[in-house]
Amino acid sequence: MDISLFGDLERLNQTGNFTRAAELANITQPAFSRRIKALEAWVGTKLVDRSRQPVTLTAAGSQMLEAGLQSLAHIEQVRSQVLNAQSLPEKYVVAFGKQHSISWRFYTNWLRAVEEAYGPVLSRLRADDLPHCMTELQSGELDFVIAYARAGELIDNSQSIVIGKDRLVPVCKPDADGKPIYNFNNKDQIPFLRFGDESSISEHLEPLFQENNLQSKLLSVYENPIAGSLLIRVREGSGVAWLPESLIEADITTNTLISIGDDAWTVALDIRLYRNEEESNHLTRAIWSFLESGKLKLL
Fold this sequence. Notes:
By secondary structure, this protein is of the alpha/beta class. The chain is 43% helix and 21% strand. It folds into three domains: 5-66, Winged helix-like DNA-binding domain superfamily/Winged helix DNA-binding domain (Arc Repressor Mutant, subunit A); 71-146 and 273-292, D-Maltodextrin-Binding Protein, domain 2 (3-Layer(aba) Sandwich), CATH 3.40.190; 166-269, Periplasmic binding protein-like II (D-Maltodextrin-Binding Protein, domain 2), CATH 3.40.190.
């Protein structure tokens, strides 16, 4: 499968028009249409709703586009790392692990800020569930792990440091008037799109649910440990989900999603960088000391 097809799908998503998207791709419109159909054939389902103008992506199209763009970014990052490693074989490649729910954009922006202030760092990233990341941190396969912690939670600061802030925000699809299609003040149960009991991010929501007796108000209709998958279902109007604000900023700005309630319904989170001091080396200790100095502002 030609991975550049995801770039064509992104152009179509941006323009809503096959002709304009083909112009951006610098190919003819028939050739562009064949490329989109080839991607749909590979996936096995329709990715574009052609029944109206402007054309829009189907739910499957949105999900595949997000996965494709993340894959393209990761491939390009690894390609750059491979080229750098070949030209500088003596350099150590720092291995980062990232909790699934943390936006990949946060990692990209944070690492760029680190390199601008500290200097170039050869690195690789693995996104996984938190228990697996922490296991690999303890075994030395990862140098650092980026994960959420409840804001203000007492944690051993010799093994972790706050590098950013985020919030879990309850959101849903708006109606035609721009108001939430679900309301906590109604007597009916609200369909709930949840991370699931096995997901560590659920632990940060549980105190809020208990304090406000929300368990009886929420009816679980879908469960997925990956925030991006929950985001797709929320956009469809399938229910309410508490999602990281860093992930849904664009949706809130464009009114694709709308938050429910006020700040009392949100959960403040720290984004922490974890290390295993026993498995550290000269480079990772130097990076840690730099971050610990507070010279880098929180994102």
